[in-house]
Prior knowledge:
Order of helices and strands: HHHHHHHHHHHHHH
Number of domains: 2
Number of helices: 14
Amino acid sequence: MPDAAAKPSPLLRFAPLILIAAALGAAFALGLHRQVSLEALRERQAELEAFVAANLAAALGLYILFYALAVAISFPVASVLTLAGGFLFGPWVGGAATVIAATIGATLLFLAARTAIGDSLRARAGGWLDKLERGFRENAFNYLLALRLFPGAPFFIVNLVPAFFGVKLRDFVLATFIGIIPGTLVYASVGNGLRAAFEAGVSADPAAQGRALLFSPEIILPIAGLILLSLLPIVAKAFRKRAPEA
């Protein structure tokens, strides 16, 4: 009886993932994926800027809350939201708010996955997963930090995988927070560049808009930074290969 009482029921264990799935379905049903777009940002620019100017703290709070919830339910709007953060709050404030929000959302998803299926998956997988788990535990922070710094690693997948390998919550939070800073600041800078392009009175012609955005210094420099950031894994791999020879 004590063992049965101590072990949570399957429904209770899977409740976090059920809530996430329900929230994700509701977001799509409400059409939020169509409302969160750069076109919507441009159309509502004056309204949003007026609200931010009059209610900066509230605007930041709402932005962080919405962003964290979007990441927690894996709603595919994070890139647009990051650009919007740079657009509305500037690259530094917007970037900082995004890092905080993304870390909170990723942590919520990590905890939900670990609660629901982390232990059961490890129990069923056996030896091979145990070996990976030991390696992840020994170098969890470094593994996660490398994944977060790598621009090609899907954010959603990197949020889930550590839950299957017994990664400590502290390591997950720190590696996520630190690792997403460079990419977030680059994207926030691109978002800030959109403001300059919009304020320049770009023509309504889509081709003219594209040229204006592409050749705007506020856009080119952050994109160059993103390209350099994407080269970091290649440089790191080259250094690792040369290390034994030194």
